[in-house]
Amino acid sequence: MEHSGFFNGDQEYGQEEFNRYFDNIYESGVSIDGNNNMTLGVTQEMGILKIASGFAIVKGFYLYNDSVKEISITRDVNYNRIDRIVIRLNLSNSKVSIELKQGVASSSPQVPSLQRDNFIYELSLAQILVPISGSFKITDERFRNEVCGAIRPKNLSEFKDMTKQFQEQFDKWFESQQAKGWRNIFIQNSSPSLAVDGSIWIQTV
Questions:
Q1: Overall CATH class of domain 15-154
Q2: pTM of the model
């Protein structure tokens, strides 16, 4: 079955149509501001995590955070832990939100994996090393395309690969033509025998 849109008139559009549209043209990720910096950065102040304002697209759905969001973290009394600050799309409750994804406290803590299935899809803004005491260590993950990345057109890498192949084909052809000699203009009665492709022959009467 074919689908099309968006048109004025009696057509009605909803979540499914808009989601299909954006998910087909944009990779999930966070926006870039006017200074060419990624938005939704994570910092800390007095043991409180602060997530800056910004915009993100997750599988065609969007999140707009128009002010600083604060998240408190509770430490484990015995071991260190690694948490993540994620943008979570939850299709079960029709929500995209910034959440703390808590890891498991351990003598050798591991980063909690991102959930990506038919109901939940997560992007990671940052890893947070939560020690027994002292400051948190924040590792920015926004630039990592495999866990987050910037909002960008889909198939951009494939497009670059395609244009690279075209350029390589042209360069190969151009070198082969140059090896034959420079193109010239021939003004003579008979067909020039040493002319290369692209040369001009003006036949005299």
A1: mainly beta
A2: 0.70
